[in-house]
Amino acid sequence: MLPNTGRLAGCTVFITGASRGIGKAIALKAAKDGANIVIAAKTAQPHPKLLGTIYTAAEEIEAVGGKALPCIVDVRDEQQINAAVEKAIKQFGAYTIAKYGMSMYVLGMAEEFKGEIAVNALWPKTAIHTAAMDMLGGPGIESQCRKVDIIADAAYSIFQKPKSFTGNFVIDEGILKEEGIENFDVYAIKPGHPLQPDFFLDEYPEAVSKKMESTGAVPEFKEEKPQPQPKPRSGAVEETFRIVKDSLSDDVVKATQAVYLFELSGEDGGTWFLDLKSKGGNVGYGEPSDQADVVMSMTTDDFVKMFSGKLKPTMAFMSGKLKIKGNMALAIKLEKLMNQMNARL
Questions:
Q1: Contact 99, 29 (CB under 8 A)
Q2: What is the dihedral of CA 211, 215, 216, 220, to 10 degrees?
Q3: What single DSSP character describes residue 128?
Q4: Is residue 226 part of a domain?
Q5: For residues 303, 308, 311 and 313, what is the CA-based torsion angle, rounded to 10 degrees?
Q6: Of 49, 23, 223, 44, which is closest to residue 134 (Cα–Cα)?
Q7: 136-140, 290-294, 297-301: the lowest-pLDDT one
Q8: Annotated catalytic residue: which of 55, 95, 260, 285?
Q9: Any idea where the SCP2 domain is (predicted)?
Q10: Residue 286 contacts residue 276 (beta carbons within 8 Å)
């Protein structure tokens, strides 16, 4: 496991969901350095099925050398978030590191706060054993999981990096390999047992599936061996843009104010644009009349899947299927528009 260095001593870490599971593991890792931990979570009273509250977590944090500030926070409530931040500033002076739920917003915030605040997303390569995993995976799922310690160590590694390390989608195992960790069995609930890949990563490692089957185990979410994907029907991209055009309105244009350029490779590909600056909006083949704010490069297959909701933009970006140039905040706005159109595509 990754040893503590003491470099987070005096730092203030604002962690949502820190009353149990992954959030608490990150908190305890940082607390061992002497960090100040803001525990921002909903559970103030004991839960009948889930162990831990913000107060029991605070006791554990202080027991290993950290300072704790338990705050009742529902991340859907902006007032509660603001109140917790104000309490943190009042008690600790400021907070220097934060852990929130992660999504494509990482890209927008990394661009917006470049040079001031580093913003990164951390994903597990495999399933992590938590109370939620027990409920979702059923009996025996823990043997296919790693401990929350691997996420805590990966987060600890990120916390020690400079502000220039920003806008990254980090996989726990990858960053720990860079730290020199070679033995990952120490993180396994059942060392040597095949592991369940994380649900939110696009790829399902075929080698893992074969290894599980060779030991008599059956992957909980076994997928069939990938088959060559059929090419989209003739004119699929054109049809997608036609539906997008029918969905445009002055309200959409007013809310977006951006021009998107799509560089598509493969059948029915080429350069297409989506103009959400001009009155009423417009789409078409070729270059837009105004300079594009965002340029997206991908295959026609993935473009159609993305606009129809079969491929999440975040996953497309993480896996290298989608390349983005330009204003990341405006790229996020397009993701919201896609969600509204999915039912029609």
A1: no
A2: -50
A3: B
A4: no
A5: 70
A6: 49
A7: 136-140
A8: 95
A9: 245-338
A10: no
Strands (E) across 7-142 are located at 12-16, 36-41, 67-72, 97-99, 121-123
| Strands (DSSP E) found in 146-269 | 169-171, 258-265
Cα distance between residue 302 and residue 202, in whole Å: 13
Q: What pLDDT is attached to residue 105?
A: 64
* Parent domain of 277: 236-343
Q: Does one domain contain both 311 and 198?
A: no
CATH number, domain at 320? 3.30.1050.10
Q: Is 285 a catalytic residue?
A: no
- Can you give the pTM of this predicted structure? 0.57
pLDDT tens digits along 93-108: 866 666 554 555 677 7
Sign of CA dihedral 189, 195, 199, 203: positive
Rounded distance, CA 205 to CA 22, Å? 24
Which range has highest mean pLDDT (98-102, 205-209, 236-240)? 236-240
User: Exposed, middle or buried, 122 (CB in 10 Å: 0-12/13-18/19+)?
Assistant: buried
| Count of domains forming the chain | 2
Q: Is 294 in contact with 325 (CB distance < 8 Å)?
A: yes
